[in-house]
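[09:14] KT: can someone run the structure on this one? pasting the chain below
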Amino acid sequence: MTPNLAQLYRHLPAQDGLREAAQTLPGRGDVRVSLTQRCNLRCAHCHNEGQPPPWAPNKPPTVVTVESIVNLIEQMSARGVKSVKFTGGDPGVYPHLSELFDQVTRLQARHPAIEKWGISTNGIAFLNPSRYELLVTSTLDNICIGIDSVLPGEKSKPSSGVGRTGRKVWDQFVAKLAADWPGRDIKINVVFTGDIDRVYSVVDAAMDLGINASVIEVNGVMETAYQVRSAFLELVEGLARRHDLEPRLYEPLNEVYLYDASGRAPIKSYQDHCADRDCGNCRKVHFRVLHEFGEWASVPCFLQMQARTVRLTEDGRVDQQRLDDAITYNGSGPTWH
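[09:31] RB: done, structure tokens below
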């Protein structure tokens, strides 16, 4: 019998101790590096890693150099980074991908303690054969693909208004990548905005390919409020029944994962921690870095206080004290200042 998810989900207290080990990245040691503010979609719920939305007026996007990215990662490696994820915007539209992927191979050799190198994308840019080839021949070992529907005729991101159909992105990118990228981790991120059938369509397709899926309750960002918690719990219960999985609370991140009989969790669900002010959870997951006004900056509270960042560099070079300050305040919530 499926447990009552309203009881299973519970708000765990935020973690204190923000001053301890300021020089070491907390939690999973996961740094998310935004390569670009640009994106080929216009999703209403886009959080853009704490940047203004890609289509915001009077915000000309800067193009970060590969040299600057390498310098950032070199400095972060001394702070206990275990995982690097390239994000955006959408990194698929970053103009220097070939050079970046070449540098990733060199960084992997110099910094073996960084165990994971990945990318997070909506996949549309990689429908281009040359971009797809860059990805497949890279030494990245994991990818997160954001797709919210593969229902007939619907766009992969229905809230965007522009883009490609989910079926096209799935067949010509996701399924193709699953065949061409053996031994590497592919995960689907599907955002639940209230339509259960859309999520079912994506998760069912992922399960058919043996790909893990994360179901994410839509965040209330970009001045848009969503009230979907009760429907989200219903969705997770439905997924458990549909795929014969057992929901269990994963306490370290206060999330419900759906486990199979072998103890694997092919489906994970993520409620909107920001709405719950569960800031300690955010601190344990990611350290978000973006490029604004020609300099690197971190985002201590990437949804509630997007306008407040900690500058990390001076004339393009990472400043050690600023980096330590940013780590100290990472994920401390909207009152961090």
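[09:33] KT: thanks! Confidence is low (pLDDT under 50) at residues 14-21.
[09:34] RB: yep, looked fine to me
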